[in-house]
Specification:
Rossmann fold, 13 helices, homodimer, alpha/beta, disordered C terminus, 10% strand, 51% helix
Chain lengths: 328, 328
């Protein structure tokens, strides 16, 4: 079907049928902030909530994309359909391919049970949290059993993207000293599963022991985060990683914790999207309004203190209804 | 002067005189979101803009606090007065002391030319960006020549705190592989100066070479980021680090770039504070308003899609003026 001929109805049907072109088009509309995308997700929303969402995070260069590719292959062999969204700007997915990788990503692209999409981290009209949430809902409505969400483990927007995950997997590798320190200092949240990738590296055992030591400090949690050694390029350890993800899922499902987590996640996402919208609205308002620019100039000349400027900006942007100030 | 007897006038006088009790009280008022703090900074704002602000960032555990302590000692010997604000929750400053450290922080506390304050990263009524900005302006008005701002190198709020720095120093150590990868991937911004601390570590030279290799990828910048090897506990390399900071300052001052950077920084801070306020206003509004809670419940039951909920929340919170919805 040609690009122009999609209608709200045909797109909704296509997405629900798992049609790749319909999904690709729908997610592009989401990225463009097209009103049609909003209507589409609204139409499809009652049919969502069936997919299981797995967030895969970690510093750049640890092999998240390769591990995801290996996980996709693994769960496909189990007959599960998968949607992958990468919001990591440093991900090979974002460059369109896993270059030099032994796992042929093209296999996945030909597989009707797999849909892979990378999303830019900037330039979304409604912010990254909104775009990734909407894209996930589309893949969910498309009947994907599993959603894999790749994010790089830094920054607020990435945290918001991870916020929809049922299970969070942190990927580290030998040399991930900063992440270990961040876990230890309580600055990084303890994930549900940890994969130490590049297990053939001579320092892999050292890293494993460091991760173990850090996790042992936190004995009070109900779920004890398992650590798995993997070698994504060879697909080694991927079966065990998958088993641990499934264990975590079973743990959540056993006592109703999954429903509770999803409730909390959804509320958190709505709040994150609203915050991002408020921020963008502010950004546009200040850019467009010469009076607001004048306030900033006065601050720069030390004639007006920053907080008074903030108060005047807030009042003008949010609390005085005028024409043309609707949120974008 | 007793805690209760500070007035707006006596506080302003005390802060301007560099009185430690006045400064401590004023920053506490900032942290509490007390209206008096707002008035005080407004009164003092025309006298700010003289201090030079140095942001010191990096992963936890690399020795930022010890390095700052050594820098304080170094610049004190040069006769400069210093204010330190730490917004790193994992910082030893936040625990009130550098335990087990050879540099006696108590020396600094007794020195009238030094003021050190750690600020919590949570719980500020106006957000961390606002609290740290106001605290810095107070130290600036108190006549401190230098401001050192310690932040842990992750998260949006830390980026906002760093946003007021004239010079940004990134501290790494052997094992900081994740930070190297983040720099390489362009996910972490290139700082103005890099200190590789713990230079006595056997892997220090390797780390230095890795940092060099990453920086060599980016040859187009006007300022070439210098790398300094330090051993903060012994104070080694601190003179060279200080020299590089001074070089960067001279570079900025030479062609008017400092004024430009400060203009951009101030505008960015005003925007960050306004965004944080909008977010908190939203948070409180949703917490207080049963109608907004009902919207979230409908989302959780899949009866209302998230974006429609966001739109209704935005409309109700920001764009319909009613009694009792003023921003807090």
């Amino acid at each position: 079907m040609a690009r122009e001929s999609w209608t709200r109805e045909s797109l909704a049907e296509g997405v629900q049928a798992g049609d790749k072109r319909a999904l690709a088009r729908a997610i592009s509309l989401v990225e463009d902030g097209d009103p049609l995308a909003y209507e589409l997700v609204r139409d499809l929303y009652p049919q969502t909530g069936r997919a299981y969402a797995i967030g895969v995070t970690g510093p750049p260069g640890v092999g998240k994309s390769t591990l995801i590719s290996a996980l996709v292959r693994h769960v496909r062999a189990l007959g599960r359909s998968v949607g992958v969204i990468s919001v990591d700007p440093s991900s090979p997915f974002s460059q369109g391919a896993l270059l030099g990788d032994r796992i042929r990503l093209s296999d996945h692209f030909l597989d009707p049970g797999v849909f892979i999409r990378s999303m830019g981290t900037r330039g979304h009209l409604g912010g990254l949290a909104e775009a990734s949430l909407q894209a996930m809902l589309l893949l969910d409505a498309a009947g994907k059993d599993l959603l894999l969400l790749e994010t790089v483990g830094t920054g607020q927007s990435e945290v918001e993207v991870l916020g929809v995950s049922d299970t969070v997997v942190l990927v580290l590798m030998p040399g991930s000293g900063d992440s270990i320190q961040a876990l230890k200092a309580g600055i990084m949240e303890i994930p549900d599963v940890i994969a130490v990738n590049k297990r053939n590296h001579p320092m892999a055992k050292t890293m494993l022991n460091e991760v173990r030591a850090v996790l042992s400090l936190d004995r009070d949690r109900e779920w004890r985060t398992p650590i798995v050694l993997t070698e994504a390029v060879e697909g080694a350890g991927v079966d065990e990683l998958w088993a641990k993800i499934e264990e975590h899922r079973a743990h959540l499902e056993a006592d109703g914790a999954l429903a509770e987590r999803r409730r909390r996640n959804l509320a958190g996402e709505v709040f994150a999207v609203a915050s991002a919208r408020a921020k963008r609205h502010l950004e546009h308002a200040v850019a467009d309004d010469p009076e607001l620019r004048r306030l900033l100039d006065a601050v720069e000349r030390r004639e007006l203190d920053p907080l008074t400027a903030v108060r005047e900006i807030m009042e003008r942007v949010f609390f005085a209804r005028r024409n043309g100030t609707e949120p974008r």
